[in-house]
Design brief:
binds 2-acetamido-2-deoxy-beta-D-glucopyranose, 16 helices, Rossmann fold, globular, alpha/beta, about 15% strand, hydrolase, Arylacetamide_deacetylase, 8-stranded mixed β-sheet, disulfide bond, transmembrane helix, AB_hydrolase_3
């Protein structure tokens, strides 16, 4: 083979690898998604290369590329945007400019990014917070929190919890003109995980008198025990959030030691002493029939106790809100859950919905049949606006 032919062959294979993204039939605007995932695959591969060469951590490179999407806290014609700190945690505050005769609703928002990436300053998070403040005439607090790999569980959880507790002081609500009876929390992906976790924690917190009226969980991550759910099996190679990335995010939340990730990938990280917890994430009993179709429930393979001793966080209910018992569930506020069909995290959300319903909590479940992970944050996609409308309508009626 000549040099030219070899070169062509390599370029062809690389090109096909990049652009070839097998997509489900019902995806709207497939070329947009192919283009977006091609970009994110390139960044991920570059970050992997830099990591393999020992130059820097994967997440640091990914965060570096992401930082180009940050926008300053600029007020617009309808919303005043400012930055401050709540209990030493940096937050962005969005206050509608129009006059209000009554107290406003308050929404505490937690961004996503796998506990490793993201910030309240990212264009898409800033955009959603602005729209929420404007459309709902609400004060929106968009919180930051410390990220892995520099910080691990429970730092992310504690930052979000501390900022939320600060917001729920009567004098802070007074300062922003927020009605203490109408405060909700929202979060997407890892932010949905943190939102669900702090909402549970707040229930029994004797120091906080003001309680949340709603929680909205947008394709949240809710459990660490079973990485072999039907949604993980079906979407394991779906380019937006492949299983390998999700497992990496989960394990980075607890440690940079890759042995936890390796055990999670083969679903052998839970020790025998914790096997009783599997009942909380048993998809065989918690998933609606249609999502179980074609899948067989394998009883989990148990791992050694060593990992759980070193990194107990992954068995902690503050990291995995599905591990709470039914008593805790009964006290949760009115809940909105978005799940997407093409998402490894789909079944986490579905099981949470089942457990909330079983506990008698008022829950609205919005399953997006043509949805994929992150769909609310992909600017320019039609699906983004559809989901945003449904989400804001629910808040408008329930918060
Ligand atoms: C401000 O509100 C007006 C009236 O609702 C709307 O037409 C306009 O697009 C809003 N501006 C921004 C920047 O959202
Ligand atoms: C999960 O639920 C099924 C029944 O749907 C049951 O047979 C199985 O033993 C359960 N497994 C665990 C680990 O709880």
């Amino acid at each position: 083979m000549g040099r030219k032919t070899t070169l062509l062959l390599i370029v062809g294979i690389l090109g096909a690898y990049y652009v070839y993204t097998p997509l489900p039939d019902n995806i709207e605007e497939p070329w947009r998604l192919v283009w977006m995932t091609t970009l994110s695959k390139s960044v991920a591969n570059l970050a992997l290369l830099v990591e393999v060469l020992g130059i820097n951590h994967f997440m640091n490179i990914a965060m570096f590329f992401m930082s180009f999407q940050e926008v300053p806290p600029t007020s617009d014609e309808n919303v005043t945007v400012m930055e401050t700190t709540f209990n030493n945690v940096p937050v962005r505050v969005y206050v509608p400019k129009r006059k209000s005769k009554t107290l406003r609703r308050g929404l505490f928002y937690v961004h996503g990014g796998g506990w490793c990436l993201g910030s309240a300053a990212l264009f898409n998070d800033d955009f959603l917070s602005r729209r929420t403040a404007d459309r709902l005439d609400a004060v929106v607090i968009s919180t930051n929190y410390r990220l892995a790999p520099k910080y691990h569980f429970p730092d992310q959880f504690e930052d979000v919890y501390n900022a939320l507790r600060w917001f729920l002081h009567q004098d802070v609500l007074d300062k922003y003109g927020v009605d203490p009876e109408r405060v909700g929390i929202s979060g997407s992906s890892a932010g949905g995980n943190l939102a669900a976790a702090v909402t549970q924690q707040l229930i029994d917190d004797p120091d906080v008198k003001i309680k949340l009226k709603t929680q909205s969980l947008i394709y949240p991550a809710l459990q660490t025990l079973d990485m072999d759910l039907p949604s993980y099996r079906e979407n394991s190679h779906f380019a937006v959030l492949p299983k390998s990335f999700m497992v990496r995010f989960w394990s980075e939340y607890f440690t940079t030691d890759r042995s936890l990730e390796e055990a999670m990938l083969v679903n052998q990280h839970v020790p025998v002493e914790s096997s009783h917890l599997f009942r909380f994430v048993n998809w065989s009993s918690l998933l609606p029939e249609k999502f179980k179709k074609g899948h067989f429930y394998n009883s989990p393979t148990l791992g050694s106790s060593e990992l759980a001793k070193k990194y107990p966080g992954f068995l902690d209910v503050r990291a995995a809100p599905l591990l709470a018992d039914d008593d805790k569930f009964r006290s949760l506020p009115s809940t909105y859950v978005i799940t997407c069909q093409h998402d490894v995290l789909r079944d986490d959300g579905l099981m949470y919905v089942t457990r909330l319903q079983n506990a008698g909590v008022r829950v609205t479940h919005n399953h997006i049949e043509d949805g994929f992970h992150g769909a609310l944050f992909h600017h320019g996609f039609k699906i983004r606006y559809r989901i945003e409308n449904q989400y804001l309508n629910w808040l408008s009626e329930n918060l």
